[in-house]
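Students often ask why we bother encoding 3D structure as a string. The short answer is that it lets us treat folding as translation between two languages. Here is a chain of 119 residues written in the first language.
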Amino acid sequence: MIAGRMVRETDQASVADPVWRTRNAWERLRGLLGRPRLGRDEGLLLSPCHSIHTIGMGYAIDVVYLSDQGEVLKVCGGLPPLRLSRCRGAAMTLELAAGACARHGLEPGQRLQWSPYET
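And here it is in the second language, the structure alphabet:
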């Protein structure tokens, strides 16, 4: 996975840092399964992705569905374990620690931008 950060375009406010972006189908399939719980400001960006599940997870997560332009299409706060979620038209899915969406005021219509760390 590639590390970077996610910011809101309008004010360049950090939404999550670090954000791990998947590079292939295997990384998308594994997602957060078998990984430690996300830290308060950490995220996982799945691309391409329009649906996720929390089967096998022991904790809730926040989920943000994004268009290919980074527009927030749908926000699911506190999605508990053993659930499925999807969003028609989404190109990417950002998984965050539960409570992050409310803390950052994320809502449909906003635009987010992921940038990889410079090496």
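Translate back mentally: The chain has a mean pLDDT of 93. Keep this in mind for the problem set.
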